[in-house]
Automatic annotation (TrEMBL):
Entries under InterPro entries matching the protein: FAD-bd, FAD/NAD-bd_sf, RIFMO-like
Domain FAD-binding residues, every copy: 8-334
Key words, A-Z: FAD, Flavoprotein, Monooxygenase, Oxidoreductase
A Pfam family per the record: FAD_binding_3
Organism per entry: Pendulispora rubella
Protein name: FAD-dependent monooxygenase
Coiled coil: none
Names of the cofactor(s): FAD
Annotated Gene3D superfamilies: 3.30.70.2450, 3.40.30.120, FAD/NAD(P)-binding domain
């Protein structure tokens, strides 16, 4: 049997939203990437459909929102089934409904347009890492194939083949309660938003195409099967016991179950093998956080791995992927566990639900909960400093530059970092000083002299923003002594000692 051998810099396993986002980010960073997907064609069912504010900002910073179109938006989300207003200072507050199938189409088109090599019908059968790279074997349409790569990233879901092949331990919490769901055509039932009835929890939402998604949990029911495939007969039986409604005459288009168990890898990086999305963490899909968490893993990893495989950055930069995202994953799994208790618990949790329901409307509590759910509260440890934006995402800000009007999202669309110098036009010396310091990194960052509109946090000084939109250095109007240190830490060794790159 023919064995085809291919060499590349990165192999991404899995062509779901996380793998495709990562592939696009790697190509944007100048890395060679091949995506291997065992399915011959994209899935037709849409398991997730909710995007939160931070993910929408990410898509904006890559120019992808035009492809998304005008999805429906709801300012109201929930915390464990309790209403939660998600309105926050962001251009995209609330929940945005974009089906997973549509999101995959958008990300695949984007990644392919950048040059990503996406190969469907390829099932990975072995992964062997050595000092110099990783050897991957797969079965594809043309038989056995081999790939030699510098790195492999597993984005192949909660039942990750890569994780199993390399023997990575996936610590698992005890599975207790299961919710089952189905997309059903041909039924007429009332819409329900986290309706708690005497015998269980029922959710129903009728789509524009007439299909109704039902989700149901029977109080007190515990199972050890985890997220095994459910049958429509089981969905219909439990739905009848909980709601009294008969949906057996409907046509099931998709049936699925998920548990309240959670798992997280101890390390997201194992040498030359990395994990992102559900292959790194498994959690109950409450409020769309699972999909958003995975996409943000990819957005954090892509530019770092691209710099490493191009020889521009050290392993220390790649290690920050685990340090930053593992902590975020841990936090998200914790809030999902709390929500699962509130959502799936029976009468024993009513007192707690009533208490939290009284606290949520208080503005400070609501803001904290909404920021946590939306991903806007993330703050990475990027070193010492007093600026309130240090380690946080750069907020969307309209800017006036010497080249005209722009905004922070637009400046990030090339996948490079940005050094924003908030100097008036008559303070050219300040801009030239910082521009000269950053000149050796002209290929990795652009230096922009800007005047912010209506954002007092940006008055004076300068900010260094990573390609993923997080602020990693700040300076007052007179101090810039640590800029070179920050540039080396986040963008590697200088690639150019001459030329001053872009001016905006």
């Amino acid at each position: 049997m023919t064995r085809i051998r291919t060499t590349t810099q990165v192999v991404v396993v899995g062509a779901g939203p996380v793998g495709l986002m990562l592939a696009g980010e790697l190509k944007l960073g100048g890395a060679e990437v091949i995506v291997l997907e065992k399915l011959d064609a994209p899935m037709t069912e849409s398991r997730a459909s909710t995007l939160h504010a931070r993910t929408m900002e990410i898509l904006d910073s890559r120019g992808l929102l035009a492809s998304v179109g005008k999805p429906s938006n709801d300012a109201m989300g929930h915390f464990g089934g309790l209403p939660l207003d998600l309105t926050l200072p962001s251009p995209y507050p609330g929940q945005w409904k974009v089906t997973q199938t549509r999101l995959e189409q958008i990300l695949q088109q984007w990644a392919a347009s950048l040059g990503a090599d996406i190969r469907r019908g390829h099932e990975v059968t072995s992964v062997t890492a050595g000092d110099g790279g990783v050897e991957i074997h797969a079965t594809g349409p043309e038989g056995l194939v081999r790939f030699d790569a510098d790195y492999v990233v597993a984005c192949d879901g909660e039942n990750s083949t890569v994780r199993r092949l390399v023997g990575v331990d996936f610590p698992n919490s005890e599975l207790e309660r299961v919710m089952i769901r189905a997309d059903v055509a041909g039924i007429q039932i009332p819409n329900r938003r986290f309706q708690r009835l005497a015998k269980g929890l029922a959710i129903a939402a009728r789509r524009e195409d007439g299909v109704t998604r039902v989700m149901v949990h029977e109080f007190g029911r515990t199972e050890k099967r985890g997220a095994a495939q459910a049958s429509f007969a089981e969905v219909a039986d439990i739905w009848m016991r909980v709601t009294g409604e008969d949906i057996r005459g409907g046509t099931p288009l998709w049936v699925n179950s998920f548990s309240d168990g959670s798992c997280q890898l101890t390390h997201y990086r194992h040498g030359r093998i990395l994990f992102a999305g559900d292959s790194a963490h498994r959690q109950m899909p409450i409020g769309g956080q699972a999909l958003n968490l995975g996409l943000q893993d990819a957005f954090n990893l892509g530019w770092k791995l691209a710099l490493c495989v191009r020889g521009q950055a050290s392993q220390e930069l790649l290690d920050t992927y685990h340090h930053e995202r593992h902590r975020v994953g841990e936090s998200v799994l914790s809030n999902i566990k709390a929500q699962a208790m509130l959502l799936l618990g029976g009468p024993e949790v009513e007192a707690l639900r009533n208490l939290i329901g009284k606290l949520i409307p208080h503005d400070d509590v609501r803001t904290d909960f909404a920021s946590m759910i939306s991903g806007l509260d993330i703050r990475y440890d990027v070193g010492a400093g007093a600026h309130p934006l240090l380690g946080a995402r750069m907020p969307h800000t309209e800017l006036t530059t010497t080249s005209g009007a722009t905004d922070t999202a637009t400046l990030l669309r090339g996948g490079r970092g940005v050094l924003l110098v908030f100097a008036d036009s008559d303070d050219r010396a300040r801009f030239e000083q910082l521009h000269a310091q950053a000149a050796p990194w002209a290929g990795q960052i652009q230096v922009v002299q800007a005047k912010p509109l209506q954002n007092e946090l940006l008055a004076g000084g300068a900010l260094l923003v990573r390609p993923d939109g997080y602020v990693v250095w700040s300076a007052t109007s007179t101090d810039s002594s640590e800029l070179t240190t920050a540039l080396r830490r986040w963008f590697g060794a200088p690639q150019s000692q001459t030329g001053i790159g872009d001016r905006s």
